[in-house]
Amino acid sequence: MGVAAAGRDEADSGAAAETGGERDTVASMRIAIVGGGISGLVAAYRLRTRLGADADIVVLDRAERLGGILHTGEMGGEPLDLGAEAFVGRRPEVPALLGELGLTDQLVTPAGRRPLVWAGGEAHPLPPRTLMGIPSDAESLRGLVDEDTLARVAAEPQRALTWYPDADLDVYSLVADRFGAQVAERSVDPLLGGVYAGSSRSIGVRAALPGLAAALDAGAPSLTHAVAAALPPPSDAPVFGGIRDGYRVLLDALAEAAAARFVTATPATRLARATGGWVLDPLGLVDAVVLATPAPVTARLLRYVAPRAADAAAGIELSSSVVVALSLPRDTALPDNSGILVATGESLRAKAFTLSSRKWPHLAERKTALVRASFGKFGDDAPLSWSDAELIAAATEDLATVTGAVIDPEEAIVQRWPGGLAQYAVGHVDRIAEIESATADLDGLALAGGYLHGVGVPACVASGENAARRIAESLA
Q1: How many CA atoms lie within 13 A of 471 on its CB side?
Q2: Would you give the distance in Å from CA 262 to the centre of its chain?
Q3: Are 306 and 442 contacting, i.e. CB atoms less than 8 angstroms apart?
Q4: Is the pTM of this model over 0.70?
Q5: What is the third-level CATH fold of 108-113+318-422?
Q6: In what order do the strands lie in the sheet with 107-108?
């Protein structure tokens, strides 16, 4: 067991609490947070600000470090994110959090370059003004798909559309039926792969594209019309934001501000109701619990507390991926784009490349050119078992193929992410509704994490904030 204390000594909790016995009634309120990723750390921070210095907040994590799937490594002695490296700019949660923590100067935005899509053995511009790759007109796809597909997209508004309100289906079935398989595989899959490490076949319309589902429910006469209705207005605002010195800056600041006790390399093994609170092994008796854990872990811990919720959470599957970061000579002839996404069916092993030095101005200032290659997606976790040498070789060879450049890495880092992202499959919205309904009356219990209402960092921040609010209100 690894323990990092911030503010309160472990002995303050009392030996009786460690064994699950009754705590001294004058002891401070004790809250356990299972999961030290961004959701759990935000929950800890918000609970500290709401409950004050006397609350005993304990964050338990099975990993040896905090941060979950956010992790900042070092390349050339400087920070580089090896998990998520950006957040959606239109959501306010991350900039607001950076401001609260005095980190506004860490906020950075991309250079504004567009990515390419590798399809049919060559690079194409990513179609503009799409909804997760689903177009609102045929012309935006020209060059990426064949002429027959272009004609099919153009004629789609004239075809009768059958859609049942509140229905759900996988994105592929909808897009391929209305626009053709090439649109799903070449335009939609590369973007869904970047968000969920999945594909149009593994992701449901209602969970991943709620605006589109709402437009269809409202009676849009075609998919073309539904996409047009769901698209946000054109904007010059940056689509993404990032953190100059990596997510570890935010994670460290949250941990410090939370002033919690952090127990790492220690999984939670059992959760049960107790008089006036909960018993969470191995911590013992606590007043409240936040489960900021992946869906399978949440399912296991809820098995005897909320069986309906546990069953629903157990139905949420996870995808795995690997990131290979490459440091190349600064003069490597990389294209002037933010990245290269790979369509379904290509012979490459990588699913995407982020041309980090092209995408982020602050990384362009470094002495080498930085590239991140991504491997693996839902249903294909084979890259997890490849050796570091095999992964680096695959990244190098595939990058040379898509850029036509000589790729000679000076340094490489491999980061594996087993079970890193929840798949928002068909029926996901109903599963989450079932989980939340089945736990709504469990006083002193809250859930957080990327499987609930979005896998992105802003959604995870929001889930941690909501969990903290629920717990604080239950303890008031």
Answers
A1: 36
A2: 23
A3: yes
A4: yes
A5: Polyamine Oxidase; Chain A, domain 2 (3.90.660)
A6: 87-88, 240-243, 107-108
